[in-house]
C-alpha cells in the first residue's frame, strides 16, 4: 500500500537496492497445495539475469533464489512465500562520478527531490535489477495459471530501434539473445547492437506480450478493469513509456464497423479488442504492446546539473544494458502473469469459479 | 477494493447504471477546510454532459448534481462527500432488440459471461454514462490541486480518425464542440462527423492530457509509480486502447542520447519523459496521450451471436456518440486530477509537504 | 481506504451526517444473482430506527431506504449497490448551545482538533445515526450468508448497567424494547430506564453477538485473522470500549487444561475459543461480547471547555438515547455479518469454496 | 491484502514459519532521513526472544536481525526496509507425535481445515515466533514516533492468573522476567510459575499497554478509528481473547455522568476514554488492556481427534511458554507503535501536519 506492493489478492511486496545486500519479495495469497520448488523460480530468473550475452549488461549475478517460507514438503501452504536473492557483483566505485550529478533521463533526479536522499550505487532502488523479484513472483503465478486453466503467457521483441521484427514463431524466442520470434533477423540485430555498444549509446524497443487460454470473465470494472490493471503494471515496468492493448493506437483511425470484433457461434473473428471488452476478458488471447525507452546510462556526454543545480557534463561508465528492452521481455511476461492471477482470485472470490 | 474504488488516499467509489434510478460517487479523503459548492462540480459535469451538440449523443440529461454530505457551511469537513445525479431520460425500449444479443466490440458479452446476469438498458454498468461521477469527483480534485499548488489540468483532441489536429492554443478548447485547440480545423471536423453520423458508423480519436505546475516528487515506486497509476486510470476509461507518456511509442526508435532530457540550471531542455522519471514527477508538465476506439453501438449491420450462442445480425439504434473520444476529453482531465491528488496526499503522508 | 470503507472484498463505504440531507452507503462486492429488494433491507433498518419505544431517542425518522443501483429485475448484478436514506427530522436548533463547547466524553473535541472544522448539528459525522447505513449493508450480508451457508447472526443485551440479563431464549429478542432474551426481567429494565430518563443521565450496557453455522476456515492470518477483523468492526461501533471473544477476559485466570476446548469425533466439547483458533473459524458458534459506554449527551451538568479553551458548564438537551446499548444490538449483528461475509469471499478467492 | 500485511501507510508484511529457514518482514512506508541501524531493532528483539529466563520457552534463538534494504549510509531512504531473522534452533522431531493430531485450543485444527495442508513443525505459521518480525517492525515505528512527537509506548503485565499485579513504576518493567511494574510481587510470580511448569499446565495473563504524548487528532472515522485499528492489531496478537480501551468493560455499569471525562482549561480530569473519543485521539494517554489466554501446548493429557477425526489423547512435549502473556508484553508495545505510526502518516496525508 506504500507503493511497493502489487496485486490485491495475489500480492507481491518487493524490496532491495541494486548494490545493497539483497533483493527479493514476499508473495502473499498463493493458493495452498501447489507443488513448488526453487527450480520453478530459478528457470525464469535465468532468462532475465545479466551477463547472458554480450548484448546485455556484463554484471555477473547468478541471481540464485532462496525460498524462505510458505512451502512445506514441496507444496505451497497458503502462507506468504518469501524469496531472497543476494547481490554478489556490486562494484560501487563504478558510480562514484555520478553520485552527485543527475543522468539525463534517469530517476536520480526525481528520487533526490522526492526523498531528499538517494542511494547512488547502481541506481539504488530505481535500478532495473529490482525487476528480478518481480520475475520470481511471476514464475509462481505462471505455474499456478498453467495448472489452473492452462493459461500460457509469452512475450517477444517486435522492434529494436528502427528494425521491425516480423513474427514467425514462438519456438524461436528462447533460441537467441533478443527474444526474437524470427531467426532470420537475428544477425541484423547483432550487428546493430555491436555498433551501438561501440558508440556508447542506447536504443529503444517494442515488446509484445500475450496470454493464451485466459477464461472469459476476469476484470473488476468499472475501475479495476483487467486492461487498466495490465496498463498499471506495464507502465510501472522500468523504461516503459507506452502501453496498448489489441489494436491500440491504430484504433484512432478505425471505424466502428472495422474495429468491433464480429462473433460467430465458433468464436470471435478478429481480435482488435486484444481480449478485453469493458475491462473484462473475453476468452480471446490478451495482446499487449509496450514501448521501451533507451536506457539513460550511456557513455555519450550529456549536459546536466548536480545536486547543487550547477551545470555539469555527465557520462556514465559501468555496466549497462544498451537496450533495456531485451531483458524486459521476461519481466513483461511476469507482470502479466501476476495481474491475471490476481484477477482469477478476485473473480472467484466475488463470483465463484469461472465457468467459461 | 471490489473494483469500483479509485485512489488509495483520495478515494472515489462509483455506483450506478445507465438507466437505473441514479448514478453517483462517494469521494473519501478530501482535506478539510476547502470552499466547495455544487457549482464547482456542475461546471465540469456540464462539459461532459450529453446533448450539447449534434456531434454527441442526443440523450437529454441535465446531469444535475446534489451534494449529500461532507460539507458544512460551504466548506469540506474531511468527511466523505457523496454526490448524486438522477437519471432522467432513460428510454429503455430503445435497447429491447439488443438485450439478448451481443454487440461486436461491446462489454455486453464479457459482462454476461462474468456475472451471469447483465442490465441491458443503455449498457447498464458498462455505459460511458458512468464517467459522469468520475468527472464530478475530478472537479473536487481539480479545485484542490489548483489551490494547493496552482496545478492546472487540461486536455484536448489531437486527432479524429485520420484528421490530425495541430495544437494552436488552449484558449480554443472550450469554443468548439470537439475540444479542438485549433479553430481552423473545426469545420472539417464538423463535415466529417455529419457524414459519419449519416453513415451510421463511428470513429476513433486521440486525446492529449496535460498537467502543468505539478511539483517534483509525486509517485510511489517501485509499483505505484505516478506513470503507472496514470496508465491505470486512463486505460480504465471507457474505449481507451492505448496510453503513452512523453515520447511514448516514439521512444522505440530513439537513441539514449536523443531521448534523455538534458538539464540546465534553468530546468529541463526537452520533455521526452513526459514529466515522469523513475515513476516520480520531475516538475515538468505531465503529458499523456490516449487512443480511443470507435464506439461499438452503430447502425451498421454486424455479425454476432445471442446469449444462446446462435448467429444473429446486430444493429444498434438508440442515441449514441459517433465518436466517444469527444466527451472523453473532460473525463480524461478528471482522471488525471484524481491520480495527481491521490499522489499529493500519499507523498505528504510519507515524506511531509513537498519542497520543490 | 480513507477511513470510511469497511471490508476488503465485501466493501461498505459510508457517507453522511446526522443532520445533513441524507446518509447512506455503497456496498461493493456483493455476488451477482441474489434476490434482493428494498424490504430485505428495510426490515433490518426498522429494528434500529429511532422512536420505536420511550427508551430510545424520540427523533422521528422513518429511515426509508432507496436502492439506487446494482439490482436488475430483482437480482443483484455484481455491480455496487448504493443505498440512500434521507434525513427528515433534523432539528438543528436543538444543538445551538453546544455548537462551540465540547461535551465530556463526546467526539466534539477530537473532531474539532483533527479537522479544524466540525458539523455540530446532531454530532455531525460522529453521530450514532451513521450506523443506519451499516445496518442496511449488513442486511445484504445477512441475507447472502443465510443462503450461502445457513449462517445465522443474532445479538442480545446481556447487561444493562448493573442489571445482568440471564439468557433464556432467542425467541424473546424481538418481543421487547431492549433486545432482552429474557421476558421476566423486562419490567425491571423498564423501571430502571424510566428512572434514568427522568434523572437526565445515561447508562452503559453489555451485548452478546453470535454467529451460528459458520463454516470452518474463515480468517486470513497472521494479521487479518477473523477475530482481529471482528474486534476492528466492533470497537469501531459507536460507544464500544471493549470487545472479547469466547472466554474473553475470563481467560486470564484459566489454566491451559481448562481453557483449551477438547474435541471428540462429534465435535468440540466446550467453546472457550468463541469459535476462532489461530484467527480462523473452527465451525463452532462465534461468540463476541461488547462493552458499551453510556452516551455522553446528558442533561446532567458537566464541566468542560469551549473552542477557545475557556471553562464552561455543558448540559445537552435534545433527543438522545439514554442507553445507546439498546439500539447497538442490531448494529452489532450487521457488523458481524459484514466481517464474516468479507471473509467468506476472501477465503474462496484464495482457497476456493469451503469444504467443511 | 492477502492477510499478512498490517497498516495502510506504514505497512508491515510478515513471512515465515517457526521451523522454516527464516522469519522476517518488509516495512514499507517509513519516512526517509531517519537514522536507523541494526541495534535499534535488536534491542527490542532481545526483550521478546526466547530463553531469557526459566519462565519462558527454552528454545535457544539469538533472533539476530539483518537489515537487507532501505538504508543508505545509516539513514532510511523511503524505500522498503526488509528484515531477516534466521531460525537456528529448530528441533522438528519434538513435534512428530502431534503432527497428525490437533491440540485442544490450538490453531492446528483450523489451519488444517482452511488450507488442507499445515506445517506442524513448531506450529508452523501459527507460532508465536512470528511475533518477532512484528517486534522488529515496531522498533522502527517506536523510534520514529519518539523523534516525531516524543511519543512513548510501554506495556506491563498487570495480572498473572489470579495474581493481580498493582502498578508501582515503569522503572521496574525491565528489571524482572515478567515485565512486572512491581518488584515486591516478583517472588510470588516466580513461585507460581515454577509450580505451574512442574505441573505441565499453562496460565492466562492480563497486559496493559500505554502510549504517552500522542497528539490529538489521530484516527480516521467512521470505520478506521484509532481504537478500532488498535483492537484489530491487539486481537490479532497470538492468544489474545479480549481488548478494552480506557474504562473498558467497567463502562457497562457507569452512568454517563461518571464516564464522560470532564475537561478544564488545563486538560482532562480523568481518562475513562482511554485517550480516544469518536475514534480519534484526544491527546491523553492511550490505555489498552489485553486478556491473554493460556497456551494450548501443555503436557497435561487432553482429549482430541486426529486428521482422520478419530479420538486421540494429546500431550505436548517440546519447549513452550507456560504463560505466553509474558513475552506478549513487548509484542503488544510494537503493535501499538505500528498502529499509531500508521495513523500519524494517514493523518498528515489528509490533513497535513498535526497542530496539537
Describe the structure concisely for a colleague:
In chain A, helix 1 (38-48) crosses helix 3. Chain A is built from 7 helices and 18 strands. With 356 residues, the first copy, chain A, is α+β, with helices and mostly antiparallel strands.
Report on this structure.
Chains A, B, C, D: Its EC number is 4.2.3.5. Chains A, B, C, D: It comes from Candidatus Kinetoplastidibacterium desouzai TCC079E. Chains A, B, C, D: It is an enzyme of class 4 (lyase). Chains A, B, C, D: FMN binds at residues 125-127, 238-239, 278, 293-297, 319. Four copies of one chain form a homotetramer. Chain A has helices spanning 38-48, 108-115, 131-149, 186-199, 226-235, 256-259, 324-351; strands spanning 5-6, 11-16, 22-28, 65-67, 71-72, 75-76, 81-86, 152-160, 163-164, 205-212, 240-245, 263-264, 267-268, 276-277, 280-281, 286-292, 302-305, 311-314. Chain A has 356 residues and is α+β, with helices and mostly antiparallel strands. The first copy, chain A, has a single domain, classed as Chorismate synthase, AroC fold (4-Layer Sandwich). In chain A, the strands form six sheets. The first copy, chain A, has a five-stranded antiparallel sheet with strand order 1-2-3-7-4, covered by helices on one side. A five-stranded antiparallel sheet of chain A has the order 9-8-10-16-11. In chain A, strands 5-6 form a two-stranded antiparallel sheet. In chain A, a hairpin with a 5-residue loop joins β2 and β3 (22-28). In chain A, α1 (38-48) crosses α3, α3 crosses α7 (324-351) and α5 runs antiparallel to α7 (324-351). The longest helix of chain A has 28 residues, at 324-351. The mean pLDDT of chain A is 94. Chains A and D meet through β2, β3 and β7 of A and β2, β3 and β7 of D.
Amino acid at each position: 500500500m506504500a507503493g511497493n506492493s502489487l496485486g490485491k489478492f495475489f500480492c507481491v511486496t518487493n524490496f532491495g537496492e541494486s548494490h545493497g545486500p539483497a533483493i527479493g519479495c514476499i508473495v502473499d495469497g498463493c493458493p495452498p497445495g501447489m507443488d513448488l520448488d526453487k527450480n520453478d523460480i530459478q528457470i525464469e530468473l535465468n532468462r532475465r539475469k545479466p551477463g547472458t550475452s554480450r548484448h546485455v549488461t556484463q554484471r555477473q549475478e547468478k541471481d540464485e533464489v532462496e525460498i524462505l517460507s510458505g512451502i512445506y514438503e514441496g507444496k505451497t501452504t497458503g502462507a506468504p512465500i518469501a524469496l531472497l536473492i543476494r547481490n554478489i557483483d556490486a562494484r560501487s566505485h563504478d558510480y562514484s562520478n555520478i553520485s552527485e550529478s543527475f543522468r539525463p533521463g534517469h530517476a536520480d533526479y526525481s528520487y533526490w527531490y522526492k526523498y531528499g536522499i538517494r542511494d547512488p550505487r547502481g541506481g539504488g532502488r530505481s535500478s532495473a535489477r529490482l525487476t528480478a523479484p518481480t520475475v520470481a513472483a511471476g514464475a509462481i503465478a505462471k505455474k499456478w495459471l498453467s495448472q489452473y486453466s492452462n493459461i500460457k503467457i509469452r512475450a517477444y521483441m517486435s522492434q529494436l530501434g528502427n528494425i521491425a521484427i516480423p513474427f514467425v514463431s514462438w519456438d524461436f524466442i528462447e533460441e537467441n539473445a533478443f527474444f526474437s520470434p524470427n531467426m532470420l533477423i537475428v544477425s541484423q540485430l547483432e550487428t546493430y547492437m555491436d555498433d551501438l555498444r561501440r558508440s556508447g549509446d542506447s536504443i529503444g524497443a517494442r515488446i509484445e506480450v500475450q496470454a493464451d487460454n485466459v477464461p472469459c470473465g476476469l476484470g473488476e470494472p468499472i475501475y479495476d478493469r483487467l486492461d487498466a490493471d495490465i496498463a498499471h503494471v506495464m507502465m510501472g515496468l522500468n523504461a516503459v513509456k507506452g502501453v496498448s492493448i489489441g489494436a491500440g493506437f491504430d484504433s484512432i483511425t478505425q471505424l466502428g464497423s472495422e474495429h468491433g470484433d464480429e462473433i460467430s457461434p465458433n468464436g470471435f473473428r478478429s481480435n482488435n479488442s486484444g481480449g478485453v471488452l469493458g475491462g473484462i476478458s473475453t476468452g480471446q488471447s490478451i495482446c499487449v504492446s509496450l514501448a521501451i525507452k533507451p536506457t539513460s546510462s550511456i557513455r555519450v556526454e550529456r549536459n546536466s546539473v548536480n545536486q547543487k543545480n550547477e551545470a555539469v557534463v555527465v557520462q556514465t561508465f559501468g555496466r549497462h544494458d544498451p537496450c533495456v528492452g531485451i531483458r524486459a521481455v521476461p519481466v513483461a511476461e511476469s507482470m502479466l502473469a501476476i495481474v491475471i492471477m490476481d484477477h482469477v482470485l478476485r473473480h472467484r472470490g466475488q463470483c465463484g469459479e469461472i465457468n467459461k
